[in-house]
Amino acid sequence: MKSFPLFLLAVLPYLGLAQPSVRINEYHFDAVKDLEAQPVQDQSITGTCWSFSTLSFMESEVNRLKDMDVKLSEMWIVRHAYIEKAERYVRFHGNVNFDEGGAFHDVTAMIAKYGIVPQATYPGLGYGSDKHHHAELKSILRGMCEAIVKNPNRTLTTSWREAIVAVVDAYLGAPVKQFEHEGRSYSPKSFAEYVGIKPENYVVLTSFTHQPMYSPFIMELPDNWLHASAYNVPLQVFMEAIDAAVLNGYSLAWAADVSEQGFSHRNGVAVVPEGNFAGLTRDEIDPLLKAPHRQENVTPEMRQVAYDNYQTTDDHGMHIIGKYQESDGTVYYKVKNSWGTKSNECDGYLFVSQAYVAYKTINVMVHKDALSKSTRKELGL
């Protein structure tokens, strides 16, 4: 996932707090379940949505498990991931992706190895800006990695990793070993324990027909540089798991394709209308998105075809924090984005139809306790 923010015209009301009813243009949403989440953040000019979305999810988990509100540092995770990506790039002789993008697994893997810190402890802004912007950093790191792989000395030196670390720390800041939080001293690992984050408790689910069901497989995504696995389940089970999680108080990290014609952050909605706006231009579609439409009946076959022909790609990570119902009965999920609060008048949130989730989701991360007993048994959890 390496989506960039859209600087868009705005549409409607503040959605940061739970509301029993929300109106967006001609949509009228009634809350079924609304979950706690920290305020919308701004990933700005970076491709680090994977860190923002997963940590937003983790912050809600801390609230659910510990009844604590804490803002975690996205750049703490990004810092360690950049260094590990560089190491893997060199080990694979350059035959693995090196970019800003990543996946939900990256966050849990980095927390397991390096712990976590509050955002105030590690803001990751060491380069003269008050907003995140990684174009220069990424270009330098990629150039260094490519030069190292060319092996100009005919043998790798003992210094290349130190050089990578020095560049990352110059831009994002050196890692902290000990810090104060609310009058107590923590290390990054002890803080992870304090807030109750146990990476082993989180699972990633997906649903594609080209792999065996109820088995883990390494998802074939360029940004899956860790070669991490997701559990594959039938589409009906996948959708039931998402719905049940939200209704039972569990939010989810959500990775999805956002290039679909029916995805409109500006209008605060994402839909898959019958016919999917076939043959219409973007200018013709935009006005249509201001009113509800009957949704497409998404099948596993439709979903697989879109994935196989690159219509569904790993574009963006977000955070599912609620379930709403439109006045016509259509189910929507409330989603927290990371494009700032001024990216639309929904204050950075949007409503995504159940059909869109079924069609365009790459995967979700959720606490394993959110899964039904039968699904956990099938997965061996």
Task: Describe, in plain words, how this protein is organized in 3D.
By secondary structure, the protein is an alpha+beta fold. It has one domain (21-379): Cathepsin B, Chain A (Alpha-Beta Complex), CATH 3.90.70.10. The chain has helices at residues 49-66, 74-91, 104-114, 135-150, 160-172, 188-195, 235-247, 282-288, 300-308, 354-360, 373-379, and strands at residues 21-24, 27-34, 179-181, 184-186, 202-206, 215-218, 229-232, 252-256, 263-264, 269-270, 316-326, 331-336, 349-353, 361-367. Strands 1, 2, 5, 6, 7, 8, 9, 10, 11, 12, 13 and 14 form a 12-stranded mixed sheet that branches. It starts with 20 loop residues before the first strand and ends with a helix. 46% of the residues are buried.
What is the CATH architecture term? Alpha-Beta Complex
Mean pLDDT: 93
Q: What proportion of the residues is helical, as a percent range?
A: 25-40%
Rounded Rg = 21 Å
Say what the CATH topology is: Cathepsin B, Chain A
| Continuous helix count | 11
- Shape by Cα distribution: globular
Order of helices and strands: EEHHHHHEEHEEEHEEEHHEEEHEH
Query: How many structural units, i.e. domains?
Result: 1
Distance between the termini: 27 Å
Helix-strand makeup class: alpha+beta
Mind telling me the CATH class? Answer: Alpha Beta
Number of separate strands? 14
Q: Provide the β-strand percentage band.
A: 15-25%
What is the makeup of the main sheet?
12 strands, mixed
CATH superfamily grouping: Cysteine proteinases
State the low-pLDDT regions, or none.
4-17
